[in-house]
């Protein structure tokens, strides 16, 4: 197991990707966005199904939970935490600030209250698409506030999401605590070579959301055939092949499901690890490079 991860990234271990202070970002995260995302009046309602799914995910073995202020799902994370026997210290919780970016400190304080936890393991700026003129705060000042949340012990680590090279350059130029994670949409049809390379050069862990998009949202493309063939060769499912591709490249995938069998199927990549040959990883990338598809933040990235 260790050798397969180390081949992909120098900041890797069998536990997860290495963060500052000897902490590890567990290799597979259970996401509470996408299908669970609340809109409109639903944001004020508790989703009992989601709370039960998060609880089940923890019980079957997930220790990395991914949420965000803008998802409207932090309350359900807190509900699940209150119902499981696993200690808080054994879990890794990530949340993000977006709607309340003008005051990240106040935003995290509210998030901690909703989740009924004294700290998060990782706190991210959800996107760089804000400015002093439009939102009353600059990237640089937002990052200074993020650093304060870590100094207060409310966030064990801080990072960003959906950041481009120019965005990372802006905050790294003033940072006293550099970002340790950049969570981005990443799959074979959106390999993001420039930002991935930059992150590796600067010891920023890449976390990948939408890792199964190529066979779910953009199916019937050139990736399908190679993933199906590799699934047969390795005795795995297509989803497991794509998660393993991400992990062997040193990325930490975030995915979700409400179905227990699917939760276990995805987690099996961690519990019963396997290693794909380098040429197989490259074939996935070669086929993925034939098309480009982005599912999230499409308007912002097109400008």
Global Rg: 18 Å
Level of helix content?
A: 40-55%
Low-confidence stretches are 1-12
- Helices, by number, come to 14
Judged by helices, strands and strand pairing, the structural class is: alpha/beta
- Global morphology: globular
* Major beta sheet, strand line-up: 3-4-5-6-7-8-9-10
Strand percentage lies at: 5-15%
Order of helices and strands: HEEEHEHEHEHHEHEHEHHHEHHH
What's the rounded overall pLDDT mean? 92
For the report, how would you describe the main beta sheet?
A: 8 strands, parallel, barrel
Q: What's the β-strand tally?
A: 10
| Separation of the first and last Cα atoms | 41 Å
Q: What's a quick, concise take on this entry?
A:
The protein is an alpha/beta fold.
Question: What topology emerges from the helices and strands here?
Answer:
Layout: H1 2-8, E1 16-18, E2 24-26, E3 29-31, H2 48-60, E4 64-66, H3 74-83, E5 92-97, H4 104-115, E6 122-125, H5 132-135, H6 139-151, E7 158-161, H7 165-172, E8 181-185, H8 193-201, E9 205-209, H9 213-216, H10 223-234, H11 238-248, E10 252-255, H12 260-271, H13 278-288, H14 298-302
Parallel strand pairs: 3-4, 3-10, 4-5, 5-6, 6-7, 7-8, 8-9, 9-10
Antiparallel strand pairs: 1-2
Description:
This protein has helices at 2-8, 48-60, 74-83, 104-115, 132-135, 139-151, 165-172, 193-201, 213-216, 223-234, 238-248, 260-271, 278-288, 298-302; strands at residues 16-18, 24-26, 29-31, 64-66, 92-97, 122-125, 158-161, 181-185, 205-209, 252-255. It has 14 helices and ten strands. With 303 residues, the protein is of the alpha/beta class. It is globular. Helix 2 (48-60) packs across helix 3 (74-83), helix 10 (223-234) packs antiparallel against helix 13 and helix 11 (238-248) packs across helix 12 (260-271). It has an eight-stranded parallel β-barrel, surrounded by four helices. A two-stranded antiparallel ribbon has the order 1-2. Residues 1-12 have low confidence and may be disordered.
